[in-house]
Design a protein that fits this description.
about 240 residues; alpha/beta; D-Maltodextrin-Binding Protein, domain 2; 2 domains; 13 strands
């Protein structure tokens, strides 16, 4: 899904997790259907169900923590939570900073959405969420990029005429396109290597527990069941 850029190696903390304690799962809480805050004020979505099941299989006590996307990796490294489960794409750039589990969803397409079919995707203005693989892609096309802190703001920018189109995960855009006057334009774009959980490099044991739990969900089909239920990406 998304790819955060970090420019400071000083953020690489040595904080580690004691497996006897509660595992804090960090998520954004603003990217449905992967993660969002429901009417009860609780983390919900595909990754809430997935994370709870992974903790059960790993025999870990877990709690959820929300954090803004643009600081989600720095706050992992600072020890504010123990893992990130937030629709985070596995990229070579990010693997220089954190360690990932295997992917829990395969790579899924990003897509452009606009109010008109004849927008100029390479010479126009395209909105994307700050510090994402979509933002990086827009820059590579030569279009003028406008970045926003949240995905909802990127859609609002198109509706307000501040941008000609938005580039985001197709999973995120599909319910918006189906219920508004926005439409998909151009070709889908494949970015990233699937979505995984991110950990501090010092927490290899904890990462291994979650990696094994993800593998077990793939083996018995329950991971595919969740993917189909929440309509995220493709199945294994």
């Amino acid at each position: 899904m998304k790819s955060l850029l970090l420019g400071s190696a000083a953020l690489a903390m040595t904080a580690s997790f004691a497996l006897a304690d509660t595992v804090r799962l960090g998520t954004e809480g603003a990217y449905p259907p992967y993660n969002f805050i429901n009417d009860a004020g609780e983390v919900d979505g595909f990754e809430r169900e997935l994370g709870d099941e992974l903790c059960k299989r790993a025999e870990l006590t877990c709690e959820w923590v929300t954090n803004d996307w643009d600081s989600i990796i720095p706050n992992l490294l600072s020890g504010n939570y123990d893992t990130i489960i937030a629709g985070m794409s596995i990229t070579a750039e990010r693997e220089e900073i954190v360690d990932f589990t295997q992917g829990y969803t395969p790579p899924s397409p990003s897509a452009y959405a606009a109010m008109s079919a004849d927008v100029d995707l390479e010479g126009g203005i395209v909105a994307a969420q700050t510090a994402t693989i979509q933002a990086n892609h827009v820059v590579s096309t030569g279009a003028t990029i406008v970045e926003y802190p949240t995905p909802d703001e990127t859609v609002a920018a198109v509706n307000a005429g501040e941008a000609d189109a938005v580039l985001a995960d197709k999973d995120f855009l599909e319910p918006i396109v189906s219920s508004t006057e926005m439409m998909f334009v151009g070709e889908d774009v494949m970015l990233g290597d699937g979505i995984g959980m991110a950990f501090r490099e010092s927490d290899a044991e904890l990462r291994g527990k979650f990696d094994a739990a993800i593998a077990s969900m793939k083996e018995d089909g329950t991971l595919n069941d969740l993917i189909v239920k929440w309509e995220v990406g493709g199945t294994w």
